[in-house]
Amino acid sequence: MPRPRSLSRDTLVENAMRQFWARGYEATSMEDLVRATGVGRGAIYTEFGGKKDLFLACLSHFSDAAVTPAFLVVEAEDAGFAAIETYLFDGVAEIASVGLPAKGCMMGNTLTELAAHDAEMAKVVRTHYDRLTDGFACALAKEVGQSPSDAEIVELAGLLTVSAQGLWAYARGTENADELWKKARMLIELIKLKLDVISEGAKDAD
Amino acid sequence: MPRPRSLSRDTLVENAMRQFWARGYEATSMEDLVRATGVGRGAIYTEFGGKKDLFLACLSHFSDAAVTPAFLVVEAEDAGFAAIETYLFDGVAEIASVGLPAKGCMMGNTLTELAAHDAEMAKVVRTHYDRLTDGFACALAKEVGQSPSDAEIVELAGLLTVSAQGLWAYARGTENADELWKKARMLIELIKLKLDVISEGAKDAD
DNA sequence: CTTGTATTGGAATGATCATTCTAATACAAG
DNA sequence: CTTGTATTAGAATGATCATTCCAATACAAG
Q: Of A75, A131, A164, A201, whose CB has the highest number of CB atoms within 10 Å?
């Protein structure tokens, strides 16, 4: 039987993810990864094949370990508008508690750094955005008793995805948590206004 | 008298900017810059000092040559809500005509790639965001006859800045211009809704 | 044409990059 | 304890990085 690794594969990926998340792909060297994970170069190559493959594993881990728990409230069966509010505010609260400037969203960072020139990365990021938009659309639809595939609902959800992404990106460049709170609150307020308009329209159609 | 350079300094910076804009800082090598500008290595170093200084010059040029013309309509004396609409829709139209995936906003790209770990870059990007937010705030304020320093106006302008940034970033990862149009239209609609609420509130206070 | 100067491409430098390889090592199984 | 195997740190490799340097060059001024 082989000697067991000092770190589980999950912990290894977790540590590598933290490094990539904070610094990005290009600015992270294999030396950084060896230091961050505490795992030997050889083991990384035999386990993952190379830097890019490890990065893709980290993106996948980010989706499971960071996005899923945070987005759980929105993806819940009975999620409505309040769930979206909770998701956004919890996100800002987490950023504020960890300290600014923040690391942003690893998917958004990857979109900006790599998606335009790497089709494989672009696909992963797009899948993530589709997931967010679907989740938002379901919650928004439930709130106003519409179909989650209603065009207006989907477009509102799409804008919410993009605006939230802008907010997480902005968090990489500020040290002022209050600015983030204000923007999150304003975004929520705007979504609520539109939601009310949609509700009104549905009532008139009765 | 010296031999004149084959390219003016402005053209040199313009070409370098294009490269940095598309690829980012880390992924652009001096070799890329020599090829993109058609200027010798030596001249770049004697003129700018190094890669980072050239990048900062490109950021400055981006502000003058890309942001200023596009944002002119919003910064005009008599700009109102329609100016914001024009800025956003013209931006999407330009992206659609140049072709997707787009290069996004060089300031936003720099925010994501470098701001969290380079104070000098962060300052340049922050100045840019302040400029956008100020411009939006003035136009929004004029539309509803409020002060551009009114807290609600400033917060709405701040959200608009962040949401627009999210939209330009999203353009780096999609090949579908229609998605951008929908998001831009929805953003404009939400801003208009909030603006109407602000107008109503001002009327009640009379 | 000659002189002076800035630019040029390419060579040189030394650092760092991702990746491969290897000898020493540490542990599980027998 | 012995054997087998996976991991390890570090050396080695070759590419590429930013930067420096320089001889050849190209052009303006006289």
A: A164
Dump pLDDT digits (tens) for B54-75.
Answer: 999 999 999 999 999 999 999 9
Whether the CB of B27 is less than 7 Å away from nucleic strand D comes out as: no
CA distance B110 to A113: 9
Task: For chain A, give the number of residues.
Answer: 206
pLDDT, tens digit, for every residue of B168-205?
Answer: 999 999 999 999 999 999 999 999 999 999 998 877 76
A102 inside 8 A of chain B by CB: yes
Going from the C-alpha of B123 to that of each of A74, A122, B108, B114, B150, the distances in angstroms are 35, 29, 13, 11, 25
Choose among A23, A155, A167: nearest Cβ to B182. Answer: A155
Beta carbons of B118 and B56 less than 8 angstroms apart: no
- Chain B CA closest to residue A193: B193
Say if B7 is an interface residue toward chain A (CB within 8 Å): no
C-alpha distance from B5 to closest chain A C-alpha (Å): 33
CA distances from B51 to A30, A174, B17, B48 (A): 23, 25, 12, 8
What is d(CA B98, CA B152) in angstroms, rounded to the nearest whole number? 36
